[in-house]
Amino acid sequence: MPINIPKNLPAGEILRNEKIFVMEEDRALSQDIRPLNILVFNLMPEKEKAELQLLRLLGNTPLQTNVTFLNTATYEPKHVSKSHLEMFYKTFDKIKHRRFDGMVITGAPVERMEFEEVRYWKELTEILDWAKENVTSIIYICWAAQAALYYHFGIGKYELPKKCSGVYAHVITDLTNDLVRGFNDEFMAPHSRYTTVSLEEVQQHPELELLSYSEEVGPFIIQSKDHKHIMITGHLEYDATTLAEEYERDIKKGLPVEIPENYFPDNDPTKPPKNTWRAHAHLLFYNWLNYYVYQETPYEWHFVDDAIDYYI
């Protein structure tokens, strides 16, 4: 399906340059198609980069998808313009009367704080409670995955001796599971975080299934047995250069960070890194939208007139 986005969304020009079929809003609205409605709660500081990364993945299926971007009402982001938020984002009070087929909650650079110390924690938990009845399936990325494990399943996080940054090999525990259908026996995926969760606690929890893990960095893909919650502890959505940009940012801040592992050719930061995880990123989102959202969501949700924001 083509991607339909609002006029003037900064990601639009980039998507067109990547030869992604972009369709105008009016044409999408005129089609007699039941689109999937996906809510993206974007907690990343550089929101425009995260938008582009997620739109690429959500747009790579035969399913027409209507995406709504959600922003916090209790915290004002510092790295994005107010006009961008006003034009392309909504707050929870504007969407809580609606239902969504799927939801994505991004990571956030707050993992070294206790969950309850995060300024928007109360707002996030209100949204998580609302999503239990109003969203078919939810993907949580990095810190959001840790937050979901803590809030829904009582599994806490702990701080690592040093930042986990790099691209690591992962294995699949059940290749017949729909979410990882088509995955290689071993695949690469990026991580960028200061905290982690216990592999043993995840494995022993009666409501959870561990689908993928790394010998080096622990649990990676975790799902609830009812398929409602999908926790991804790393960043399959990252671009090839994202870890390099984070590394350069941390060096400029004077932080004691090491070169991302298994990332730069010959471990040389002057050499451009390659994306070795792109195919599995697309496959994960394709499988999620197909098996966990499209196949499971009720065909007839109740929508009001403002339900359609834009399609991808």
UniProtKB/TrEMBL annotation:
<comment type="similarity">
    <text>Belongs to the MetA family.</text>
</comment>
<keyword id="KW-0012">Acyltransferase</keyword>
<dbReference type="GO" id="GO:0008899">
    <property type="term" value="F:homoserine O-succinyltransferase activity"/>
</dbReference>
<protein>
    <recommendedName>
        <fullName>Homoserine O-acetyltransferase</fullName>
        <ecNumber>2.3.1.31</ecNumber>
    </recommendedName>
</protein>
<feature type="active site" description="Proton acceptor">
    <location>
        <position position="235"/>
    </location>
</feature>
<dbReference type="InterPro" id="IPR029062">
    <property type="entry name" value="Class_I_gatase-like"/>
</dbReference>
<keyword id="KW-0963">Cytoplasm</keyword>
<dbReference type="InterPro" id="IPR033752">
    <property type="entry name" value="MetA_family"/>
</dbReference>
<feature type="site" description="Important for acyl-CoA specificity">
    <location>
        <position position="111"/>
    </location>
</feature>
<keyword id="KW-0486">Methionine biosynthesis</keyword>
<dbReference type="GO" id="GO:0019281">
    <property type="term" value="P:L-methionine biosynthetic process from homoserine via O-succinyl-L-homoserine and cystathionine"/>
</dbReference>
<keyword id="KW-0808">Transferase</keyword>
<feature type="binding site">
    <location>
        <position position="192"/>
    </location>
    <ligand>
        <name>substrate</name>
    </ligand>
</feature>
<feature type="site" description="Important for substrate specificity">
    <location>
        <position position="192"/>
    </location>
</feature>
<dbReference type="Pfam" id="PF04204">
    <property type="entry name" value="HTS"/>
</dbReference>
<comment type="pathway">
    <text>Amino-acid biosynthesis; L-methionine biosynthesis via de novo pathway; O-acetyl-L-homoserine from L-homoserine: step 1/1.</text>
</comment>
<feature type="active site">
    <location>
        <position position="237"/>
    </location>
</feature>
<feature type="binding site">
    <location>
        <position position="163"/>
    </location>
    <ligand>
        <name>substrate</name>
    </ligand>
</feature>
<dbReference type="GO" id="GO:0005737">
    <property type="term" value="C:cytoplasm"/>
</dbReference>
<keyword id="KW-0028">Amino-acid biosynthesis</keyword>
<comment type="function">
    <text>Transfers an acetyl group from acetyl-CoA to L-homoserine, forming acetyl-L-homoserine.</text>
</comment>
<dbReference type="GO" id="GO:0004414">
    <property type="term" value="F:homoserine O-acetyltransferase activity"/>
</dbReference>
<dbReference type="InterPro" id="IPR005697">
    <property type="entry name" value="HST_MetA"/>
</dbReference>
<feature type="active site" description="Acyl-thioester intermediate">
    <location>
        <position position="142"/>
    </location>
</feature>
<feature type="binding site">
    <location>
        <position position="249"/>
    </location>
    <ligand>
        <name>substrate</name>
    </ligand>
</feature>
